Amino acid sequence: MQGHCKVILWAFMLCVLLGVVAVLPESQAQALTIYVDEANPPFMYRANERAAGIYPDIVRAISARAGLNVKIVPVPWRRALFHLDNGDGAVAGIYKNLERQKKYAFSEPIHREGLMIYRLKGEFDRETKIEDLSGMNVGVIRGWSYGDAFDNARTSGLFETSEAAGDDQNFAMLVNNRVDAVIAVREAGDIWIKKLELDDQIVRALSPIYENQTFIAINRTSKDIATLSLINRAIAELIEDGTIETVISNAVNQAIGLGFH
C-alpha cells in the first residue's frame, strides 16, 4: 500500500513539473531572433561577425532588463525585411509607416532619427525641406522607407532616387556628381563624412527635413508577438532611468573609433 502511494505521489509530481514546463513563456524556451542591418553605422552594422551599433546595443539592454533570450543577427536590410515578412523573427531600427502597420506590430519607440540633406559645398543652397529636393536625383539606401512624407514625395515624382547599399556608397556618388543630394540620418552621415575625409567637399543642412522614430517590429502573424509587452515595459524603464541615452552615446563613440567598413 505504501509503495502504491509513492507511485501515485511521483506521478502527481511529474504532472506538476510537466505543467510548469508547458506554461513557461515561449520567449524563455527559445531565443527570439532580431535582425538588424549589417551596413548602417553607427546604428547597426557587422563588426567582427557580430551585430554592433546603437540598435543592437539597445536590444541587448532591453533583453537583459526584460529577461528575454534574444539572438541578434546582422544581415542586408532587404533580407531583414524578408524575414520579418515571413514572420520568422523581429527587426530592430525600423521606421513605422501606414503600409507597414498593416503587417507588423511595433514596440514603443527606441530612438528618433533626424533625416538630413547632404550636398556638395558648391551646390548647397540652404535646402532643409523635402520640397527643396524638387527635380533632383537623390541618393538613398536600397530597400529603405524614409517615412510617409518622403516616400509619398518620391512616389509622386517630386524627385528621382538612386539606390545604394549604404551611406558610404551614396556619398561616393555625390562627390562623383552621380546624384545631386543624399538623404542620411545625422549620426550616420556625419560619421561617414569623417571616415571618408569628405569634410571639405560635403555640407549638410542645419535642420532635419523630418524626424523618424524607430521601433522593434514583429509580424502580426508571428508566434513571438506576445513578447512585445515585455519589450515595451523594458523600454519604458530604460528611458526612465537614462540607460538608453547612455547606450546611444557609447555606441556612437565606439563607431567613431572602430574604422567600420
Automatic annotation (TrEMBL):
Domain called Solute-binding protein family 3/N-terminal: residue spans: 31-255
Signal found in the keyword field: yes
UniProt entry keywords in alphabetical sequence: Signal
Domain of life: Bacteria
Gene3D superfamilies, per the entry: Periplasmic binding protein-like II (3.40.190.10)
SUPFAM superfamilies: Periplasmic binding protein-like II (SSF53850)
Pfam families referenced in this protein's UniProt entry, alphabetically: SBP_bac_3 (PF00497)
Membrane-crossing residue ranges in chain numbering: none
Entry-linked InterPro entries: Solute-binding_3/MltF_N (IPR001638)
Keyword Transmembrane helix: no
Name of this protein: Solute-binding protein family 3/N-terminal domain-containing protein
UniProt source species: Thalassospira indica
